[in-house]
Structures are given as C-alpha cells and as structure tokens.
Amino acid sequence: MDTTTLIIIAAVIVIVAIIAIAYVQRRSKNLRERFGPEYGRTVEESGGRLKAESELRQREKRVEALDIRPLEPDDRTRYIERWRGAQAQFVDDPGAAIAAADKLLGEVMVARGYPMSDFEQRAADLSVDHPEVVEHYRAAHEIAQRHERSQAGTEDLRQAMVHCKALFEDLVGLPGGRDSQTPAPEDRHVRH
C-alpha cells in the first residue's frame, strides 16, 4: 500500500471513531434529559453508565410496547373524587389514608395501561413517562413499608401522602402535575 492509501484509511477510521463517540455522547445526553434524576439513580444502582443506559433503553422498549392511554373523562373525575376522600381520611386515620392512596394509584396505573407487577417493575415502567415523579412513588412506598413495621410517625405519613399526591396529579393530569392526558411529544407510543 502506498502512503496516500494509508492516510485515507487512517482518516476514515478517525472519522468513524469521531462519529461513534458523538453518537454515544448524544444518546447518553438524551437519556439524561429524558430520565432526569432517574438517570443518576439508575447509574448509581447499576454500577455504571453503560449498564444504566442499557437498562433505561430496555425500559423505553418495554413501555413502548404497552398500551398506555389517557383516562376516560368519567374515570378521571371518579379517581379525583376518590383522591379527595383519601386526603380527607388522613385527618382521622393517616395509615388507612396512605393505604387508600396507594390502592388508588395502582388502580389509576392499571386504567392507564401500566401492568401491575412487582413494585420495582411498576416504578421502572413509570420512570419512562413520569421521570420527575417516580422518585415520589419510591419514597411513598418506602414510608408505607416503614409504617407496616411501626417505624413511621404521622409526619412521615404526611410526607408519604405528599409523595403520592405528586404521582397522582401527574397520572391524572391535575394542575401541578404534567398534563398526562395530553401526551408530551416524547410520549409517541401513547395510543389515543
């Protein structure tokens, strides 16, 4: 091979490497932006960026295959009324109110098309379209578990209710939550 051919081959290799690096960096940036705090949590739990990004892409594929849909207006109204009832119940029985809120969240998730598997899978599925509030769901769940072991006081339960409310508002599209009744552009897999 002559020198010109070697230079061309080297240049092509360098260009391909630059394009590959730019692609990986852009993909990482897109995942960080899409998943927000969930990205960092997943990196920490999985032990590295590559594993975390692979997991996050798998979540996206899994949720894309689901039939996630907006709530019917009558269902939305009914869920909002039940939420108000759970909040009112908090004054007299905080533990029962948290249980009612958790049950209601599960029902709303099912109505929206999320499968009701184990908690970690539900949280992972929610993180795809609701990355800003999935941490609220995890925090409420952790407090509810502590309450079951008699290790959570009334203030803890109040905080759990606040966490549940953040997710509820996002799922049903109340002010304060992202309007999940009108899918965001990144929610292309949501079927109407």
Chain-wise SSE layout:
Elements: H1 3-35, H2 37-46, H3 49-64, H4 73-89, H5 94-112, H6 119-129, H7 134-148, H8 154-172
Helix pairs in contact: 1-2, 2-3, 3-6, 4-5, 4-8, 5-8, 6-7, 7-8
Can you walk me through this structure?
The protein has 192 residues and is mainly α. It has two domains: 3-64; 73-172, Up-down Bundle (Four Helix Bundle (Hemerythrin (Met), subunit A)). The chain has helices at 3-35, 37-46, 49-64, 73-89, 94-112, 119-129, 134-148, 154-172. Helix 2 (37-46) packs across helix 3, helix 3 (49-64) packs across helix 6 (119-129) and helix 5 runs parallel beside helix 8 (154-172).
Residues in helices, as a percent range: over 70%
* Percent in strands: under 5%
Q: What are the low-pLDDT stretches, counting only 5+ consecutive residues below 50? A: 178-192
Task: Give the second-level CATH assignment, the architecture of the largest domain.
Answer: Up-down Bundle
Tell me, what's the shape?
A: elongated
Over all CA atoms, what is the radius of gyration?
Answer: 22 Å
Q: Give the rounded overall mean pLDDT.
A: 86
Main structural class: mainly alpha
Number of domains: 2
CATH topology call of the largest domain: Four Helix Bundle (Hemerythrin (Met), subunit A)
Q: Which H/E pattern describes the elements?
A: HHHHHHHH
Distance between the termini: 60 Å
DSSP summary: helix tally: 8
Number of strands: 0
The profile of the biggest β sheet is: none
Query: What is the CATH C-level name of the largest domain?
Result: Mainly Alpha
